[in-house]
Amino acid sequence: MEKEENILGYEEIGKLIRKFSIPCIISLVVNSLYNIVDQIFIGWGVGYIGNGATNVVFPITMLCLAFALMFGDGSSAYLSLKLGEKNKKEASKGVVNGILISIIVSILLCVIIIGFLPQILNLFGCTDALREDAMGYGFFVALGLPFMMIGTTLNSIIRADGSPKYAMTSMVIGAILNVILDPIFIFVFKMGVEGAAIATSISQFVTFAMNVAYLRKLKTIKITRDDIKLKPSIVGRVSMLGISSFITQMSIVLVMAFENNLLGKYGAESEFGSEIPITVLGIVMKISQILNSIIIGIASGAQPIFGYNYGAQNYDRVRKTLKYVLGLSLIVSTIAFLLFQLIPDKLILIFGSGNELYIEFACYAFRTYLMLCICNGIQILAGIFFQAIGKGVKSAIISLSRQIVFLIPAMVVFGATFGIHGILYAGPFADGLAFIIAGILLILQVRKFKKVEASTKPLITNPLEITEPSASNVVITLSREYGSGGRYIGKLIAQKLGIKLYDKEFIIKVAEETGLSEQYIKENEQKRNVLDVLNNGYYSDMNNSDELFVKESELIKEVSAKEPCVIVGRCADQILKDNKNVLKVFIYSNMEDKINRAVKYYGMDKKKAEKEISRIDKLRGNHYKYYTGKEWKDFSNYDICINSDKLGVEKAADLIIDMAKQLENKNQKVAENITQ
Fold first, then answer.
1. 365 vs 358: CA distance, rounded Å
2. The pTM is what?
């Protein structure tokens, strides 16, 4: 069968990046502008003290956004995954549960924030001079948080439903409305910071209302009353799928909490006081966030190109895409660097006027804190690149190193040593170290591509052939611990019953349908690292691991419907859990026996065997839990669990065959009774 080549594998790279990146950049920048617009009008209408107040409230918004993105991105990933499995009912339940938990958590957070606002503001570095404005601004922001959170959750779902333009439009309309309402409430109604908060909340409500209205015209699913039930298992699954977004946002909240408190402490010991540093650095971070949003948007646009071509082992195209995106990111970050160094006074004046100390510190902060912002073009891109190719550990190291590992400790140590100046120099210190790590990992990965290209040999496998429906249709799913002899038992069963064994035969078929290489599939299927939760992309659809699971699920359903067979692994027991003609088997053994078998049959080093067996079983367990929501070694998932070495592989095979025949006889009797 001739496969249709994926557009990601041949279309001009620049055209693909423009197609995927522009909507992402617009959405991210618009999201960044919400609070910046408030600060511009507050700066001119209230003064820099008002802006300082918004900066100590901003971490509250970011904390709530972390939950909203977790539920939204998790729901959208769940939707894409279940649609790929052709399971619209489960997809609908996932979306509904994501929305329901977002509603519950948003209301709960709203109540907690309003009830404990003074204490929360203290955690985020509020000073006495900022307190009155912060309380007023924070109260009205808190009232609008449910609309912001639910609207953000829905926005992610709408994108996954195939309407990214609608999602972008609802955000843009909200942002434009905020620009219109801010001056009205601040200058016309003379409401100060409270007016800015009310304007923001109204704008967020409009985005929320537009997104709610979209639910009536969902393209891929239809929500029914039966779906509107909160199920903890689905909520947990959705949350896990969105945990990457949550961790990213919470790292920002943590940085802001440390930063505001340290700026207040060491600023009070300087000629600038506490309020000027808190105000200025908040503005500096938000302007730099626009730069980061553009770079994230560019890199996210390249994410599906990276992922597909890496899986297809088209490493030359991966390198070309990486080079193209690096060039774009460096251009953007270089322009930003020049602006921050040459006209910082003009940038700060956008946010209103201030005294000489205010302007002096602002110029100093821009030039110092963002001294190495040019490195962001490498560091951010590298994190998303490794995320795209499924390298969870490397992606986590790059993504979290700058914020958590380097910046916070540097602020604490440098602040204690050099005072307010040390806080500012912590920025380039963290940027520089994160850049070095990202650069080294990128260079090593590109070199690895060249080595793999030189050594990769095509797999020799047999095509997956699906026969016509059989009168006897018992399917045996066989899950097994590594080294337990499970696959050999499956082979014995297939031989004795005269039916097919499906295991490695899936690889070539999946390769044909996805365009991913057989070697890549062999090395990555049924294996999931704990840190792979960080591999979910910003705005991309399913990653390679998800696509592998979906395609294998389709094939498992197809072969099980047409012929009796033995299917090894691949969560087949859960994929076929509703089929009455399925016998679900789990093969296990004690560690000593597994080591002996691994050494004898797999040529494994005896000293390293136990560690390797445990590692592989853990990856299989993670994969099973991620895609089914259940524990791999929970024996209640199976009809029979056998210790292969206690019983022996021959007797184990015979026992399973006997159970399969009993199941077949039982099904035949049921069918006969129905016909009579």
1. 10
2. 0.85
